[in-house]
Each structure stands twice: as structure tokens, then as C-alpha cells.
Amino acid sequence: MPVRATISTISTVVVDDELLARDELLFLLRDFPDIEIIATAENGLDAVNLIENSEPDLVFLDVEMPGLDGIGVIRRLREKNATLPYFVMATAYESYAVEAFHQEATDYLLKPIEKERLAQTIERARRAVAERNRVAEAAIAETAIAETSEAPRPTAPQRAKILVRKEGRHYIIDSQEIIYARIDDGVISVVAAGVEGETNYATMEELQSSLDAEQFWRVHRSWLVNINRIREVIPWFKSTFQLKMDDKRQTEVPVSRVQTKRLRTLLKL
After folding, report:
1. CATH class of 10-144
2. What angle (nearest 5°) sits at the alpha carbon of residue 224, between those of residues 223 and 225?
3. Chain centroid to CA 265
4. pLDDT > 80? residue 152
5. What average pLDDT does this structure show over 14-28?
6. The domain 161-267 is classified under which CATH number: 2.40.260.10, 2.60.120.10, 3.40.50.1360, 2.40.50.1020?
């Protein structure tokens, strides 16, 4: 019996404010087995949060949407320094493509979408995603080599106490009590066992460097978690995971594609 090769999937998000347009594109994408639809969004604001948290490989993004349009979505993600996927802009007007390319969009489709043109776009996306994954894997390998080096690495002094602000009051908490921290629009919030609020740290890198590197893990660009407060590992879209944390809301934290390999090693998945 012949052995079938495993298909490497491309995690994909579709964003369009028109239901019929979303459904039409989703129908066409069914004929491409390596395209894995992980989510859809119907407005720009939801698209920004979805893309930032799920870090998809590919996003089909409608240009014209009320509120925050497609180009605005890309601008917002760039301002947040988010990991940008391969963007394909969908529009009824070819003139929009020029501005889209200036904003890091890498391809565009004219509505109504033709299947032959869609196939060309997906082939270009395959090549781009494969190259990005190759670069990421090389970076992970280099990091692993550096971590096993015998050369001593300078470490920042670790703080036993962290200041957290909430409703005009200042709380001093033991750093070991931190469950997770998240940065959103430049503001870092901390959730601990007894309190949650904002910190005085300007960047996640500063906060991370002040904590125990063996206990606190940057699982995502926007999230830092206490390994000892992970309650559950939840399989998400193909080959990735979310972490359910041990806070009262049981917050689910996304694990970036780059950090998924470390998660598998850490927990023997």
C-alpha cells in the first residue's frame, strides 16, 4: 500500500464584513487541502485581535470595511509590532492594490474572485510561508546552540517584589505569585494570585529580564506566563496550542508558532 505524504497546512484567516463574500471565498478555499481555515472575522477591530493572538500564516483581508478598513488593519498591526502574516487583499477596485502593497500586503484578488487567480495567489503564499518557516526553524536551531554554549551569559538582577497599580492604589506582590502578564497597546498588565493591575515596566523585555528565567516564559510576543501556573494545555488549530492558566477566569493564552517547539519539549507533547 503506498504511503501518503503528510500535507503541511497553512493556517488561514478570512476577514470580510459581507457574509456572502466570506462564504464564497471559504467555498473556493475548500479545494485547497493545505489551506486550514482557523477563524473568520467580519470587521477590522476583531481582525487585529485575531491576527495578533493566533499568528496565522495567511490572511485574506477585505479592503473596504466600515470602521477600520483592511489597510487600517495592517497599519494597526505594524504599530503593535505584531508578527505579520502573508496578506492577500480582496477588493473590487484594482487601484486599491497600490496602497495595499505599500502597507506590506503581498498580493491582491479582485472581486468576484476567480478560482484560477486564487490558485496563483495560494501558490505564491505557499512559497512565502515555506521560506518564513525555514528562517524561523534556523533561528530556533541557532538559539538552541547558543543556550548549550558553555560561555557564561550576563543576567539582570531578579526582583523578588513587583509593583502593581490598581484603581489609584499601589500593591507590592511577590514575583512568584504572578500568573501571567500581557502587553496591550503599550500597557503591561499583570495577573497575580491576589491582585491584578498595571506595572511600571515600559516593555515586556524589561519585565521578563527582572523575573526568574526558569519560571517565566514568553510564550507569545504579547504574553509572559508562569510555567508553574499552567493548568491545562489545549490543542488549538493544527500543531499549535493554547495554555489555560490558573487564574479565576482560567484565561487561555496563545502559544506562538516559534514557541510551540519549546512547549512540546517542555511538556513532552
Report:
1. alpha beta
2. 115
3. 20
4. no
5. 95
6. 2.40.50.1020
